[in-house]
Amino acid sequence: MRQDLSPDRVKTEQDGLSPTTKAILERNTLIDRDILNRFGPPGGKSGLDDLLRQRADLWRGRIPQPLEERGVPTGFVELDRELAGGGWPRGALIEILSPYRGREALHLMMPALVRLSREARWIAWVAPPYLPYAPGLAGRGVELSRLLMITPGDERMCLWSLEQALRSGACSAALAWPGQLEMAALRRLQLAAETGNALAVLFRPEQAARQASPAALRLRVRCLADGMAVHVLKRQGGWAVGPLRLQALQASQPVAPDRSAYPFPES
Q: Which domains does the chain have, with CATH numbers?
C-alpha cells in the first residue's frame, strides 16, 4: 500500500502533536535542508569526505589520515611507514609499554632524542628509574647540554613537573616513567603536550594496555636477540599493526650498565 505523504496529510497528522514535538520536527527539517544544500543528496560521497577532512579529531578507521605537520622521524623506516606524519607525533601523548620499565624500550627513542637535542629546546627526563649514562648518550650523538634532569620527591610532584615541562613550550620532549595513572591525569598530559607542542613520552608497564588512554600513539615493545619487536596498539588514522621487527642500533648504552637508579616512588 502506498503511503500518503502529501502536505495536507502530514499537516493533519502533525496537528495532534505537542508543541515540543512539532518544534523538534521543524528543527530536524531545517537541519536536513542545510545538509542537502552544503553536501548534496544522500549517497553523495564527496560532500561527506569534505566534512570529515575538516575534523582532525575524527578517526577514519582503515583510511590513513596524513597529518599537516610532519612527525619526528623515529630512525626506523619500518616504523615511520606505519605512523601518520612519518614519525613520532608532535604535540601528543605517546605511550611505550614494555616489561622492563622502559630500560630497553629507551633504545627506540634514541634516534629522535639525537635529532631533538640539536634543537633550541630542552629534553626533560622526569624521575628516570635508571641513571642516564652520559658517555652512552654522547656516544649515540645526543647533545648533553640540552638534557634537563628533574627528580621530584613523590608521584604527585612527578606528574606536576611533567605537566609543567610539557606545557611550558621550553621542551621539545619530556620522558617519564609513571606508576598507575588515572584517565584525568592522562588527559591533562595530552593537553599539556598539545599546548607546548612537545613529545610526551611515557614508559609504562605492559599491564597498562588494559587501561583506556587518550594517547595518540601506543606501542608495545619487546626485546629480541637481534633487535626489537614493536606492536602498534594505537595510532592516528589507522588500525593496530605488528609485530614490526626492528634491527638493534649498535652503539653505546643510554643508561648506566650497572643499573644504578634514582629513587623512584612506587604507585
A: 7-53 (no CATH), 77-247 (3.40.50.300)
